[in-house]
């Protein structure tokens, strides 16, 4: 999908506005408009992430949280725990979030913004529930969430908004106090940032530097292949990603967004490094965890690598395009398995960096916060692909869970 989509709600979407239930959102976001173009006086930032174990004793309880509601016995969880066991039971994601939080706090202070940052995870301490409760206890009522996920899908977008709605419901913080004396807590979420310059820049730098190094070593551009890797998800979930009133190609918004970013990076590379223009690229997938009978997005990165020598490829650049930081799926599935696949195929390989706490990424996230503080018009918001800027308020039917259906979610239009 290469054309700019119409960002005005369709008649079907507009009629849905009348059916909205509690949105757990600020008054501005509750209007149902796709973009919040009026200033909102947020008083705190909520950094929301996935979470990970920090010791061997944490691994199985963490995996129980991740798979809650699916009835998976501990024996099967132990079969998938070996990635964490290999790293002494420690996922790097919490340490990376601490580093990101500190960098964001420095950027907030540098800009003179009076916004404390609270960090909470979906699956492991510190939990989102505790972060929201602490913000409330500190007197904050209008929160703006920044999730460490950039693309449309259930787990990377809608599930966070469902988390916010569940927490505000379970704690009672999302409802006015008796007598109306205390305002309820609301949680909005910054737009998905898959094509924001701050997110894309670290990936571009990594691709540019890796390809340039291979060219300097004497390889020709056709002998170099750039593989943009992201988490595979069930095709049924991928097809449900993105608003329902947009006709998406196969794979929904999830695939379209990744492909658009990869196209931008390779186009820019050809402009700035013309000798690299003939380097091929492909969007590939990793970390599949479902049964063989269930269709998931393909091709798997390891299968793709195995095919490259027959195509005359001698070097591969592995780009973790779907990941914000070097968490377990990057360290194990790419740095271990994919690099081993390249070695078995007799090819050189390099894995480029993730955004992590790159200055451009940190600044970009606070730019997104300031968009909402100022009510920046959509036409003035930066986006590097025709798909952006993405919506502030999720559109009807966006990223339904194929197994669970629609559940209450913050800052979105029903269903």
TrEMBL record:
Its main location: cytoplasm. HAMAP family: Ferrochelatase. Fe-coproporphyrin III binds at residues 91, 160. This is Coproporphyrin III ferrochelatase. It holds the Pfam family Ferrochelatase. InterPro entries: Ferrochelatase, Ferrochelatase_C, Ferrochelatase_N. Involved in coproporphyrin-dependent heme b biosynthesis. Catalyzes the insertion of ferrous iron into coproporphyrin III to form Fe-coproporphyrin III. It comes from Microbacterium marinilacus. Its EC number is 4.99.1.9. The keyword Acyltransferase does not apply. Keywords: Cytoplasm, Heme biosynthesis, Iron, Lyase, Metal-binding, Porphyrin biosynthesis. Fe(2+) binds at residues 231, 329. Belongs to the ferrochelatase family. The keyword S-adenosyl-L-methionine does not apply. It catalyses: Fe-coproporphyrin III + 2 H(+) = coproporphyrin III + Fe(2+).
């Amino acid at each position: 999908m290469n054309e700019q989509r119409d960002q005005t709600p369709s008649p079907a979407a507009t009629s849905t506005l009348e059916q909205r239930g509690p949105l757990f959102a600020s008054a501005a976001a509750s209007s149902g408009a796709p973009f919040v173009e009026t200033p909102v006086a947020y008083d705190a930032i909520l950094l929301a992430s996935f979470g990970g174990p920090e010791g061997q004793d944490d691994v199985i309880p963490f995996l129980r949280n991740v798979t809650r509601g699916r009835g998976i016995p501990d024996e099967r969880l132990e079969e998938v725990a070996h990635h964490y066991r290999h790293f002494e039971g420690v996922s790097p994601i919490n340490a990376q979030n601490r580093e990101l939080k500190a960098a964001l706090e420095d950027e907030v202070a540098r800009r003179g913004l009076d916004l404390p940052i609270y960090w909470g995870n979906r699956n492991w301490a510190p939990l989102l529930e505790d972060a929201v409760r602490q913000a409330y206890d500190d007197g904050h009522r209008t929160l703006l969430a920044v999730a460490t996920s950039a693309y449309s899908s259930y787990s990377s977008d809608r599930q966070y908004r469902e988390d916010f709605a569940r927490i505000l419901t379970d704690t009672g913080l999302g409802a006015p106090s008796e007598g109306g004396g205390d305002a309820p807590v609301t949680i909005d979420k910054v737009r998905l940032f898959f094509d924001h310059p701050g997110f894309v820049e670290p990936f571009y730098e990594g691709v540019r530097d890796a390809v340039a190094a291979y060219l300097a070593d004497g390889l020709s551009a056709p002998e170099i292949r750039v593989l943009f890797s992201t988490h595979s998800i069930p095709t049924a979930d991928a097809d449900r990603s993105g608003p329902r009133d947009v006709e998406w190609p196969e794979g929904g918004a999830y695939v379209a967004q990744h492909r658009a970013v990869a196209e931008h990076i390779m186009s820019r590379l050809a402009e700035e490094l013309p000798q690299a223009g003939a380097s091929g690229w492909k969007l590939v997938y990793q970390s599949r965890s479902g049964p063989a009978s269930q269709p998931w997005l393909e091709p798997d990165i390891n299968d793709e690598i195995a095919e490259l020598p027959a195509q005359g490829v001698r070097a591969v650049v592995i780009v973790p395009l779907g990941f914000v930081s070097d968490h377990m799926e990057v360290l194990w599935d790419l740095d271990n398995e994919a690099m081993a696949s390249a070695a078995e195929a007799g090819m050189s390989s390099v894995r480029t960096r993730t955004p992590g706490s790159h200055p451009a990424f940190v600044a970009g996230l606070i730019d997104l916060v300031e968009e909402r503080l100022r009510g920046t018009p959509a036409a003035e918001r930066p986006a590097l692909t025709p798909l952006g800027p993405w919506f502030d308020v999720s559109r009807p039917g966006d990223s339904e869970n194929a197994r669970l259906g629609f559940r209450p979610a913050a800052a979105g239009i029903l269903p």
